[in-house]
Structure formats: structure tokens, C-alpha cells
Amino acid sequence: MNLTGFAIRYGFLLLLLGLVLLFSIVAEGFAGPRSAVFIFQSVSITGILALGVTATLVVDGFDLSIGSVATTALMLSAYVMVVLEMSAFAAIISCLIMGAIVGLVNGLLIVKARVPDLLATLGMMFLLIGLQRIPTEGRSISTGMKLPSGETTEGVYSQSFLWLGRHRLDFFLENLIPIPVIIFILVGIVIWLFLELTRHGRLMYAIGSNETATALAGANVNKYKILAYVISGITASIGGILLSARLGRGDIASGNNLLLDSVAAALIGFAVLGAAKPNAFGTAIGALFVGVLLQGLTMMNAPYYTQDFVKGSVLVIALIFTFALSSKGRKTGH
Amino acid sequence: MKIACQVSGIVKSFGPNQVLKEVDLELPSAKVTVLMGANGAGKSTLVKILCGVYKADSGNVTLFGKDFAPASPADAFQSGVVTVHQTINNGVIPDLDVASNLMIDRLADNSSGFFLRTQKLRDEARKVASTMDLDLDITAAVRDLGLADRQMIAIARAMTRAPKLLILDEPTSSLSANEAKRLFKLLSNLKEQGVAILYISHRMSDIRAIADRIVTMRDGKISGIFDEPSLDYEGAVTAMLGQKMVHAKLQVQEKGMPIFELRNAKLSKFSNPFDLVFYKNEIIAITGLLGSGKTAIASAIFGLNGLFEGDMLLHGEAYRPKSPADAISKGIFMCPKDRSTNAVVSDFDITNNMVLPFLDRHSWFSFLKSKNLAKKASVSILDLGIVCQSELDQVTTLSGGNQQKVMIGRWLSEKSEILLLDEPFQGVDIKARRDIGSQIRQSSRERATLVFVSELDEAVEIADKIVVLHEGSYAGIFENKESNIVNILSLYSGKSAGDVAMKSGSLNG
Predict the structure, then answer these.
(1) What is the CATH number of domain B3-241?
(2) Handedness of CA B371, B377, B383, B386 (dihedral sign)
(3) Taking the model in full, what pTM does it have?
(4) Could B343 and A213 be called an inter-chain contact, meaning their C-beta atoms sit closer than 8 Å?
(5) Which of A37, A175, B366, B494 is most exposed, with minimal Cβ within 10 Å?
(6) By C-alpha distance, which of B438, B432, B431 is closest to B461?
């Protein structure tokens, strides 16, 4: 392997390693299990959303609605528990069903109504942002708030629901690993197994590369495309559930950055191991990369408002890795 | 004889691969020079050097005595070297109308005005279209046109550039016989105006129709130049391949049990109903010109569209496939035409391209058994003689002929009842064509094989029986015998005697 080949394949991982080493030396307290877990925790929700959007990128699609699906799940779970006074289980199930339905509708719009993916999911994003405000007339949901009907809410977030967002498991150290990190890793493994090792994943990659050829090889292209959006919808709703469990209230203003952050993670993932294509491992690494960088800079007292600039720069560099350096990067995607 | 373009000592390597090894070539004005060569001989690389896509490592090119080393395609075109590439969609812009497509170079020219003058643009486009005999609504969007029309537009567009050296890379591969004739007429007009033409083709019928000289390439070198008045076609083929090609001799095979039947089949409202039976261990070529209904039959059997009218029977029972997946599960496979659009998954390696339709047969609870896949692929690689380093090579690193072998191997790797091969020899050199043909014949014992081809010599080369279609109707079925050829030809081209004479030339090629 020549130098360019090596750089394309391992460059990004080496860069990540270098960053970790650099921060460990210059930023006091960066190296250590608590800090590492904090990084994982900070990227777990965006990471889960990014894994979903990866599935849509694989079939050469795109899901812009993930951020709004997550915030809708946030509001829905709060509504179910606080206003309808139902259980944590009911909240979780209704969020997952909502995510699946949104994914299904996205898929049908794209496959059956032939709306281009970006436009269909952009429309859906808009629709959901509006929809989640209607039941409470645009206010956040919390116990004791006044409803439009004049009643006062008496339901509370159930403890088992909050456990999802706040509990930490013991792992060598006491109270080390938060549940969202576990779920992020599990979702990552499941999506990775599905995309890399099953025939369904292989066919989805084939669809992303040449849809006609895959259809003529006997695959049900429409089914797989819809499936990709359903996966994306469900993972986004999982992200929303975890966000809700962390906040403990239906905060209308939360989750604004989810879409951009998770799309960035998925696109940065193209550059990992020289894949030049959407892949679950790369997406997870992409999310961690952003997390490491932000955590390190924060510990070095970089102001919060520089964060988006940093993320953007990482994304641009990753895209150069993918498209300019790699010979595989002929496909422009979106 | 005035030399328009002189190529001397061109060397070009890609990594360790020397693709051109000191190529010398003269292209005289007012002559059509046909460049023949097997896939991978270096034709495309040579063309890309002439039109400014690649730079030669050493050697030089002169154009009318002056040094010519174009830095970019635009540079080459400024100097009067115009190229029509094989990939049609690089030559047209689908979202614009025909007029804008024809005049696009004028639009891109910085010296033309800022505002669009639609009327003037259309007038000029109409002029270009009429010199080309292009019978098209020039306000129509190119998106809505067929491949053949797009190809004619790409060629017409090249004409607007007043070329001094015109390079055409396989221009007829998607044209019908009539359209090809129009193109040849145009080329002879240009020739009279003194344009030097370099014409790359595999098609014997094209070559016979227009070649003034033939130059053959093999392994990155010029292997033969033929410019005596009566061109030695056989010699040219031999020089191209480096060995004498024995014409494939067919033993008509003993046919087995009937497998498949078309009953009262109609392909369109205006066509006549017909019956056909396909037997085991039989290879049937279905031939006809572009638009004769070949694709309609293939699509119906593979479950893409239904028949317009009539029934299909598989093993005596009604067969109505709902989708390609349904057809495949019943053992009916189709290798589609136009491999880059319809077959090649360019992001995948050879293995994954080969096994794509049969992933379910090589998985355990949906998990792929990758060792099985690789084994399957390496067997096909050996059987078909695919030139590659391993089954893990990206499919796009292979030459066109080898890519086509991968696509054929895809459908030969599992047992089928009926194998439909739509234009299996498209863009493939004679050597690869023979490899593919013999593999198809060798493996045909347990199935019925239908080969859809528009070139009659390809049908003669592979089939036991030949079915001729004409304008959507069944025209006849013949044993593949020398004595039937004349009959086939007269039906093939729809009775016109002149056509028969022209076409028969291609038969011996």
C-alpha cells in the first residue's frame, strides 16, 4: 500500500488518536474513564440518529426529518406521561410507533408518490415541527402546567422512564456508564450487523449503487427503500425518548441541533477506513470524533459559540478525505 | 494523401501497467480510418490522449504539422479535434431541449451575448438538424427521447464544432440500421469536405460500410495497417487478435423436453398473434432490428411487463410472473442489455456483483456466508476466463468484456429453467464474445436459452434456431443453417432487397 492509500484508509483514525493524545497532554483531566464516558454520553443521542440516517444514505436517500422526529418523540413521551397520565411503557411504545409511521410515510412519499427524498423529508420535518406544538399551544410540557382546556396537568415522568436517561451502571467504577451510552453501542452493533453482514444490508448497498440493476436482479427495491426510512424513523424516536428521559420534561426548545450534528457524523463516517460510502462503524467514529474534539476544546476553555465552527471544519476536512483523495469518491451523493 | 494528424511514439502507463507502447499512427484527411482492437488493447486510452483527457508519458502528436498536446478536452476542441464518446449521456444534457443541446457549445462560448436569443438559437439548431437529417421537434426535452435520438444529437452536436479531426467511439451501438445509414451518409459528406475521421467499432457491418483504411491495435501497439483498395477484413481481424479466429462451428444440439410456451402472444395492438415453444437444451436467438419487439418478449417472460395479449406456459402450466423476483424464484433468469445501466453495481467487487440475485441462497438467517460467495465467484471466474487479480477486485477495474463476463457469470452460476440473454455481446470484442458464447453453449443442457440480438452474425454464431421479429410481429423461425440465411435476411429487414444485400455483408464477419 502506498502512502496515499495508507492516508486514505487510516488517516482519519490516526487523526482521532492524535487528538486524544494531544488533549490528554494539554488538557488536565481529559484522560480518564469519567471523561471518556462523558464524551460517549454527549454523542450518544446524535450518534443514534446518525446511525439511522446512515441507513437512508446507504440506499442513496437522505432523511432530513430525523431531528424533528426526535423532538416529536420528546414531546409525545411527555404528553403521554404528564397529560394522559399513562405509564413509561405506553410512552416508549407510542414514540417508537410514531417513528415507524413517520418513516413509512417518508418512504411511501419517496417510492410511491415519487417525491425526491430531500423534499419529502424536508416537508415531513416542517410538518412535525408544527405538529408537536399544537396540543399544548406551543408550550413545554411539565407537571402542574395549565392546558388549553384550563385543566392543570397532574401526571409525572415515571421513574423507570427517567432511569433510561439518568441511570448509570457500575463498570469497574461506581455509577460509570449511562444507559444512553449502552443503547448507542447496541444500536450501533445492530445497524452494523444488519448493513455489513446480512443479505438485506448488501442489497441496500446495491440499491444505492445501481437501483435498476438491483431491481433486475430480483430485489424488491421499493420495500428496501421504505425499510431504510422506517429504520431511520425508529432510531430517531429512540434518540427522542432518551432526550426526554434526560430532560425530564417536554421541552419545546430542545433538540435544535440534532439534525445537523447527526448528518455531520454520518458524513464524517464516509472518511473512516477509506470507505467512501455510508457505513455504521464510520458513523459511530464520526460521532465520537466530534465529541472528543468538543470535549477537549471545552476543557481548554474554548468558548461554546465556537462549537459549530469546529464541527463544520471537521466535516469539510472529512469530505475532502472522502471525495478528493479517494478514487472511490466519484459518487456525489447529495 | 494529406496527413491531418500524426501520432509518433506515444507511450502511456497507468501505475505499473504500460497501456500504450510506442504507438505510431497517421490519420489522413478525407479518409475514414477504422481503429479495431480487442477490449484492453489501448484504443480508448489513445483516443483520450488525442482529445485531451490524458497526457502521454512520451512521444508526440502533430496536427497539420504543428505540435498538438491538448491540456484539456476544451483545448482539443478549440484545435478542431472533436470526439463523440461511447457513453451517450455524456454527450447530451437531458433537462434541456434539443435546440439548446445542439447549440450548447455556442452557449458556452464567452464571446456570445449575455441574453439568450431563443428564436435565433432555434433557427440555427434547425439548420444543424436539417444538415444531419435529424427529424426531431427541436423544442422537445432530450429527457423524453430514446437512446438512438440522443446518440444522433450527440453526433450532431459534434458537427456544430466544424471538426478537422472527428473521433467516434462505437457510435452505432444504440442506433437502428436506418439511423446508422444516416450517420454513414453524414460521415461521407464530412469526408468529402476533407475531415479526417477516426472511427472505433467492433461491428463488422459498420466497418464494411465506411472504412477507407483499417488500423488494428493489440496489447498497446499497432498490429496491422490495411489500406489497399480492397480491404482485407479477415486479415484485420487476425491482426487484431494475434491469431486466426476460427469461425465458431455449431453442432446443432439434440433438443430435450418442451419447457416453455407462448400461446396467441401479441406484443402490441398492431402486431399479429403467434405461438412459440422452447425446449430444453436448445438455444434460440431472437433477432430483429431495434424496436422489433425483442425487449417486449424478454420483459414479459421475466415479469417486468405482461404480454399485451396471450398466455405463457411453464411446464404446461399457466405462468404469470408478478415481478423479476417471482420469475427468478421459478428459475427464469434474465441478463439485461446495457450492462452499465442495468446490471453492473459499480460500488461492488466481482464476487458481490456475481451473486447479487442469489444472496438468499447463500445466507443463514439472513447472514451472508461470505466463504460460499467467494467460492462461487472464483468458479465462474475460471469458467469464463475472466481476467482479474482475484474475486475481490472492484468490478469497475475490469475491461468492458470482462465486466460483461461477470454479468453473464451472474446468471450462469445457478441452475435455471429458462435463461434470457438480452444483447449479451454488446460492446464486447470477438475474443470475449467467443468465450461467452462457448460457455453459454456448454452449460445449456438443462435449460432453454433465449438470446436476444440485433446483429444477425451474433445469432448465427450461437443459436440452434433463429426467430425473426419484424416491427412487433413474429416473422419466422429457422434452423441455423447456411441454406436458411437468405430467408432470414429477407424477413429480418422487412423484405427490401437492397437491405438484404447490405446486411449479408455482416454475416461473414
Answers:
(1) 3.40.50.300
(2) negative
(3) 0.79
(4) yes
(5) A175
(6) B438
Instruction: Verify whether the Cβ–Cβ distance A328 to B334 is below 8 Å.
Output: no
CATH architecture classification, B249-331+416-509: 3-Layer(aba) Sandwich (3.40)
**Taking a C-beta distance cutoff of 8 angstroms, is the pair A263, A257 a contact?**
no
Within-domain flag for A23: yes
What is the identity of the amino acid at B454? S
Measured CA to CA in angstroms, residue A1 lies from A102, A196, A312, B394, B405 at distances of: 45, 24, 31, 16, 29
| CB contacts < 8 A (A, B) | 73
Q: Residues in chain B with pLDDT < 70?
A: 39-40, 87-90, 241-250, 290-291, 483, 490, 492-509
> Is residue A332 in some structural domain?
no
* Residue B363 contacts A where some CB pair is shorter than 8 Å: yes
Interface touch B345/A213, C-beta < 8 Å: yes
> In the prediction, which pLDDT does B505 show?
38
Does residue A219 fall inside a structural domain?
A: yes
- Among A203, A208, A331, the residue with its CB nearest the CB of B359 is A203
Write the ipTM.
0.86
- Distances in whole angstroms, Cα of residue A107 to Cα of each of A117, A206, B218, B284, B486: 9, 18, 51, 42, 55
Count of structural domains within chain A? 1
- B325, B343, B366 member nearest A199 (Cβ): B366
Q: What residues in chain A have per-residue pLDDT under 70?
A: 1, 325-334
Long-range residue pairs from B496-503, CB within 8 A, at least 24 positions apart, any chain: B499/B177, B502/B205, B502/B209, B503/B177, B503/B205, B503/B456
Query: Within an 8 Å CB–CB cutoff, is residue A175 touching chain B?
Result: no
Q: Is B148 on the interface with A (CB under 8 A)?
A: no
User: With contacts defined as CB-CB under 8 Å, which chain B residues touch A198?
Assistant: 363, 366-368
pLDDT given for residue B493 in this prediction:
55
- Asked if A216 is an interface residue toward chain B (Cβ–Cβ < 8 A), one would say yes
**Residue B158 has what pLDDT?**
78
**Cβ-Cβ contacts under 8 Å for A110 (sequence gap 6 or more):** A61, A116, A117, A120, A225, A229
| pLDDT tens sequence across B497-508 | 333 333 333 333
Beta strands in B233-392 (DSSP E): 258-266, 274-279, 282-287, 309-314, 317-318, 332-335, 363-364, 367-368
Under DSSP, the state recorded for B5 is: E
Interface contact A199-B343, CB threshold 8 A: no
Judge: A199–B360 Cβ closer than 8 Å, yes or no: yes
| pLDDT 10s digits, A215-224 | 999 999 999 9
The domain spanning residue A205 has which CATH number? 1.10.3470
Question: Which pLDDT score, from 0 to 100, does residue B91 have?
Answer: 73
Q: Please list the residue range(s) of chain B that carry CATH number 3.40.50.300.
A: 3-241, 249-331+416-509
Q: How far is B296 from chain A (nearest CA, A)?
A: 15
Between residues 311 and 330 of chain B, which touch chain A (CB distance below 8 Å)? 323-325, 327-329
Which residues of chain A does B363 touch, with a Cβ-Cβ cutoff of 8 Å? Answer: 198-199
Cα distance between residue A271 and residue A274, in whole Å? 5
**Of the candidates B325, B342, B362, which has its C-beta nearest A218's C-beta?**
B325
Task: Map grid coordinates 475490469 to a residue.
Answer: B398
Host domain of residue A137:
8-325
The span from the CA of A213 to the CA of A170, in Å, is: 50
